[in-house]
Amino acid sequence: MAKAKGKAKQMKGKMKEAAGKATGDRTQEVEGRAEQMSGQTQEAAQKAADRAKRTGR
Length: 57
Prior knowledge:
single chain, mainly alpha, 2 helices, 91% helix
């Protein structure tokens, strides 16, 4: 579930970044990139938790 939320956050960030580029809004562009990175982190953390469960740690 958290992996899906991370992917959704990444997609939202990509759209925000694209909108910022299209309108010339650098703040929105940077916020979009930050949101993408946050989503990537969330996804990676969940993947690590899933691996830990599989290995019994």
